[in-house]
Amino acid sequence: MNITPTRIPDILLFEPRLHGDHRGFFMETWRASTFENIVPGVAFVQDNHSKSGRGILRGLHYQLQQPQGKLVRVIAGEIYDVAVDMRRNSPTFGQWVGEFLSADNHRQLWVPPGFAHGFIVTSDSAEMVYKCTDYYAPADEHSLLWNDPALAIDWPLEKAGIAEPVLSDKDRNARVFAEAPVYD
């Protein structure tokens, strides 16, 4: 597995080795011993599976009391996956990383606890699966406004043929970065 730090070094891009022939392919998507060597002390407690249509934007979500690290991969379609550093004492506080993840490129993104996370579907539909380091706690969830000018996230709307993303009420009414609670 090839593991590459992004421009925020705590966020890692995992690229599994693909073994394929005319019958299809095989890849190892996660191995505890490998992950432990790269990101020590992390244990996953929950796996999630999400399906969304083109233009659906989910996020940017995070939990303060039960922060979740996430290992995200796409098993059908394509998404643009984004993480924003919400750790006040981090040298990359308020910065973001975005990566295309797809069933074709097999890439996975490690988003550690302390980051807001979201994605937009850039294909007709997409299914993603992700491992979490803590349980989902709806009462602890916060939403960061996806298009806050202070963050200037370069969502690939035009490239994906999306005029306006489709949002939940929660995401439409999310807080701007300057007003959002952060990790100390």
Please, could you describe this protein's structure?
The chain has 184 residues and is mainly β. It has a single domain, classed as Jelly Rolls (Sandwich), CATH 2.60.120.10. The protein is 6% helix and 41% strand. It contains two helices and 13 strands. It has helices at residues 32-38, 169-172; strands spanning 2-5, 12-15, 18-21, 24-27, 46-53, 57-63, 70-76, 78-85, 96-102, 108-111, 115-121, 125-132, 141-143. The strands form three sheets. Strands 1-2-10-7-12-5 form a six-stranded antiparallel sheet, with no helix packed on it. The chain has a five-stranded antiparallel sheet with strand order 9-8-11-6-13, with no helix packed on it. Strands 3-4 form a two-stranded antiparallel sheet. It is globular. It starts with a strand and ends in a 12-residue tail after the last helix.
Task: Explain the layout of strands and helices.
Blueprint: E1 2-5, E2 12-15, E3 18-21, E4 24-27, H1 32-38, E5 46-53, E6 57-63, E7 70-76, E8 78-85, E9 96-102, E10 108-111, E11 115-121, E12 125-132, E13 141-143, H2 169-172
